[in-house]
Protein 1
Amino acid sequence: MPRAGLNAARVVERAAELMDAHPTDELSLAALAKDLGVQTPSLYKHVNGLGQLRSAVTYSAKTELARDLAAATVGLSGPCAARALADAYRDYARRHPALYPLTVRAPEAGDHADEQISAALLGIVHAALGTHRLNETDAVHAVRVFRATVHGFISLESSGAFALPESTDQSFALAVERALGVQTR
């Protein structure tokens, strides 16, 4: 019988919390079980191994990011929507340093839940960037340039690469403006 209060959702939630609390540690079922106060085999009542747990944490992170991005951009358009989108990505990355990298991965082939949430995320990006006005090829390029700029900046910032005294907020705003080819402030 599963421990009272322990279910698949709680196992995934706690795994995500542990990853964010200890971003340099590798997720393991043994560490998660110890944290939850159960034996490792007990986790198999809720998840089918480490691979399935990682997939579930990735899905959870992408779902949370999609909610954040949608909330940040609702009712906005043009450069204001794009800037809000970029800021929401950066805010999420700061709050969830270990989960954020999971959100930028392409969906696992055949994982329908991951494919759906990844498509939803991409849809939010397309809407915020206004790529509906572009042909398909230009829309793909616009999204790639935007994502490369935002994710590249976030990656460098989170690794401590920006030690110069100038404001990283100003640098981020400038990077987003240049990626979009417009002024967003």
Protein 2
Amino acid sequence: MFGRTKTTLPTAEEALRGREERWFPLSEKHRALDAPLVTDEVPEGYGVAVFGLGCFWGAEEIFWQVPGVWSTSVGYAGGHTAHPSYEEVCSGRTGHTEAVRVVYDPARISYDELVATFYEVHDPTQGMRQGNDLGTQYRSAIYFATPEQEQVAREVTDRYQAELTKRGFDAITTEIRPASETTYYYAEDPHQQYLLKNPFGYRCHAKTGVPVPR
């Protein structure tokens, strides 16, 4: 591990061991939305989207304001360590990225629009960073739940890459993987709806300023 840097993902063998279960309580209600915080069960017909786009405090704030979003939470995805802590994820030794879990009503907003919003509010070309935030936990990621979500995610990514290339940006580095390959672990309660609890808290959005072609 001593030869690794914060921009190199650990292997499963290198990652911290983790825990057998969640070791902290979570609030029952979402602070901004009339919905539960823990959404292991979602209303019939609703969809779930999981995105990584840098520091999850500001990312969650963006998504809970999107019409058609029923609930959001922040957590850790894409790594190896079970039930990690925030400090462990920030160490770069779990393999996780900071993630936002979005539960939405497809009758009010499409997955296509959610992916477009995801791309427009961060810079997906920066690799293992967002702005001044450096590390594997800040990498861009989409964890799709269904084959239909994968198709949409890849189509939107291709459209956006073509537009970014025309404007001189580098290649998109977003990790696109099945959600079934990586467990989403809820982050500790102080991180949930963090910017409602800390209105002047940290926000990091290294946007490209380039809209996704609709």
Protein 3
Amino acid sequence: MSGSTIRGVLQTYWALAVANLAARLEGRQLLPRTDFTTADLRGELLIAAPPAKVYESLIDSAQASAWFGYPIGIEPWVGGRYAMGGFESGYAAKVVDLEPGRRMSIDWGPTGVTTWELAESQGKTKLTFVQSGFDEQNPPYAAWSGTVAGFGELVRFHELPDWQPIWLPDPTPVP
């Protein structure tokens, strides 16, 4: 994922391909593309759920770990940690902006800042997400593709009554 090899891009490319295959087979919207010709990393999704429920699933460690398919430790306050792999993973990004119920920004260091924002849209939730503040000569495509694939599962998490993740569970518990 560091960008030093193609492995991170390939890993998240396949995660995104599988997430899009699931979307296609279930008759859902396809996910935003990873455009390897631009450094503009932004996307939108509509989720058939109220913003409050979507917000909770984005800031609660247990729910986020379930739909993302990988342990995520989240301290949902400005200055809090956001740790892929859980808090014991050795690396945690920092929450740099939080508007409860609406928006969060996470600083990942060299790969930039991920920001997501929620808005009500005709009884659904519009999720807008952006990756910014990175070296535009070396966009974090691996991180971006992984984020998009994860958000595809977030849509399924909220929209399928008998939701089952498309990802195999990670046996590592999130503290």
Protein 4
Amino acid sequence: MTEAAAADGTLRRGPHRHRLGRNLAEEVAACLLGGHGMPYETGLAAFHAVRDAGLLTRGADESELERVLRTPLDVSGRTVHYRFPAQRARWLAAALRYVCTQRPPTTSHELRDWLLPVVGIGPKTAGWIVRNHLGSDDVAIIDVHVLRAGTDAGVFDPAWRPTVDYPRLEAFFLAWAGQGRVRAADLDAVIWSERAHAARIPGRRAAVE
């Protein structure tokens, strides 16, 4: 597979087509401000707001980050308020200090493990950062959409939970992609795009969930 579905349903091409940021610090910010139940478009708008304010640096001020995150966001013409601005500002300031003052590993699993001590970054978010930044197919992003799709397809045991079974879920997901001869990063992106968009169509939510 040489294409991946973007959040707006378009197709992107290239070795790093999943990237949201221009460097690792920006990728960490984009993924940290998204996820955790945050609508994708809202997280992306928040990321663009803090990036445009010039705050994604090693000396990012937590209060300035919070000020920007408390400012209403324009999301597809709607005014949206970002949830938990104080918490996310605190997490992001600490993450930027960590990422910008050390030399990160360059291999997928080492980079993911290096990110895990950062508050607010668990295996899913770390895998998301690594997948995007390195264009890696060696990690998986086991979010609710992938978990449900894998369970529906009979790939995952319904009893498995990301909080305790993440390595097992990741291994089975990567094997699933290999069996289908598709890139793991692209399989993840397509599942996320299809199921996330289907959940927003009236009458299809129940089928997706």
